[in-house]
């Protein structure tokens, strides 16, 4: 039986630590860490994500602002809100929920966010810092996966790590963070030839493809660790990951379930980045 990598329990433990630190921060500064989330339009999935971020902030005692703008918001209006939040001393983290409506330029908005408040770590300055290892913020999903591995006693150094997917949000930064932990890293993607022969080399396999049952039993090495970043719906409409869980689980040493694996860690890392930004703004190491 594979060990289940429990994202819910790990997330709870990290949030408890963040809540305790938030109390210390309040005593020291008289302030709360503040997160502003900006959402434009009515995308239902985004609305759920934003509600969950707000709830998570309340749970750890942060100041939480949600700026819900109508679909018809112009680029100038959105840019102006970001500028205002950049200069608001009560706000330490700014997150613009993606995707934005088609008429808005996400790159333009992300460039406007003060890198010191960019708790998603999407600003090119922060992306560059991650590359050279001088970062203040790590991107939330890959950072959450590293915490999950470490808190479940899974060694990364010297391991063969294979990441499927090369997105800017997950695949590419995941590869960099595994490299930083001294893993030997390969990135696979839609043009990779004989994918299964590469993934079967993996001691640690991370899948962020976005297709249900994409990772099958023949693609994993016996005893591997499998991390499933997928958030898909199966034929019955049930939430599932990229990994054919029931077929793969008997062959591996550890695996993340979906739901309850990687997902809960992403928002927790957002909280951690916001606390870090607040401490930095207050001059507390
Ligand atoms: N949409 C889906 N995931 C994310 C995320 O991590 N950050 C932002 N800003 N938008 C998202």
Content-based structural category: alpha/beta
Which bin fits the share of residues in helices? 40-55%
Level-2 CATH architecture of the largest domain: 3-Layer(aba) Sandwich
Ligands bound to this protein structure: guanine
Measured by DSSP, the beta-strand proportion falls in: 15-25%
Number of strands: 11
How confident overall, as mean pLDDT? 97
Order of strands in the sheet with most strands: 1-11-8-7-5-6
CATH fold-level assignment of the largest domain: Rossmann fold
Structural summary, described in words:
The protein is α/β, with parallel strands linked by helices and 285 residues long. It folds into two domains: 29-114, Leucine Dehydrogenase, chain A, domain 1 (Rossmann fold, 3-Layer(aba) Sandwich); 140-262, NAD(P)-binding Rossmann-like Domain (Rossmann fold, 3-Layer(aba) Sandwich), CATH 3.40.50. The protein has ten helices and eleven strands. The protein has helices spanning 7-29, 44-60, 75-86, 106-112, 124-132, 140-151, 171-180, 195-199, 245-248, 263-281; strands at residues 3-4, 34-40, 63-69, 93-96, 160-164, 184-188, 204-207, 225-228, 232-233, 239-240, 254-255. Strands 1-11-8-7-5-6 form a six-stranded parallel beta sheet. Helix 7 links the parallel strand 5 and strand 6 (184-188). Helix 1 (7-29) packs parallel to helix 10 and helix 6 packs across helix 7 (171-180). The radius of gyration is 19 Å and the shape is globular. Guanine binds at residues 95-98, 120, 140, 169.
